Amino acid sequence: MKVKILLVEDDTNLGFIISDSLKSNGYEVTLKSDGAEGFKAFNENDFHMCIFDVMMPKKDGFTLAKDVRKMDNNIPILFLTAKSNDQDKVEGFKSGGDDYLTKPFNVEELQLRVAALLRRVDIQPEAKEKDVYDIAGYQFDTINYELKHPEFEKILTKKEAQILKILCKFANQVVAREVVLNAVWGQDDYFVGRSLDVFITKLRKYLKQDERIQITNVHGIGFKLEVSE
User: Fold this and answer.
1) Residues 6+ apart with CB under 8 A from 211
2) What are the residues whose beta carbons fall under 8 Å from the beta carbon of 155, sequence distance 6 or more?
3) Residues 62 and 90: beta-carbon distance below 8 Å
4) How many angstroms from the chain centroid is the CA of residue 182?
5) Which of 101, 143, 167, 212 could form a disulfide with 225 if both were Cys (CB 3.0 to 4.6 A apart)?
6) How far apart are CA 96 and CA 76, in angstroms?
7) Which residues pair with 53 in a beta bridge?
8) How confident is the model at residue 86, as a pLDDT?
9) Does domain 4-120 have CATH number 3.30.70.1230?
10) Class for domain 132-227, per CATH?
11) What is the rounded CA–CA span in Å between residue 53 and residue 82?
């Protein structure tokens, strides 16, 4: 299985150059042009590494890295930036970055840094995220959006499936509202917040066949999918 890299770079030409270079080394690359789309892509797919430009529209690279770290503490993150001062590098590491490459850079150096980061975390491409979750008496197929129970079966919408996948990934842990909103909608304003509440209500209805399952509101923070034995 190929190592999958999420590349988020708002300079279209540079993005294609980096993407082609990485693909020539055998990596599978998903290219996005802004931070909001990058975070949505991160939550819709399984990646082994992230490469983020710092200065981007909608969501800058540092903010994007912070959001990613709320979902995954281990995935390597490499920053690309035109700024070279120490304060920016400090900010990059504080936001969850593992390495920092200043523009302009040569492609060979980028490839070497990518390889080094992957070695550092002893990347195992075959160790991907789960495609199927067992939730008490339910089975949730994240690929086909199928939620099954002996007394209930439902094909979820894409957004329903994305929300439930995040809750399953962090079962019995609190997931912040803004994490879900940014992951699914790419923004966290009032109106999409109301939409999220509607989707949560629907998911509670779908999961009511098993009393061991509860989606609870954690006031002022977010939600928790509670699954008891």
Assistant:
1) none
2) 144, 145, 146, 147
3) no
4) 9
5) 167
6) 9
7) 80
8) 64
9) no
10) mainly alpha
11) 9
Residue 83, both tokens: 């700024």
What's the pLDDT score for residue 88? 67
Under a CB-based contact definition with an 8 Å cutoff, are residues 213 and 226 in contact? yes
Residue-wise pLDDT tens digits, 93-136: 778 888 888 888 888 888 888 988 888 777 654 445 678 999 99
Using alpha carbons, select from 184, 173, 195, 199 the residue that is nearest to residue 44: 184
Domain parsing of the chain, residue ranges = 4-120, 132-227
202-215 mean pLDDT: 95
Residue the block writes with tokens 């009032």 = 190
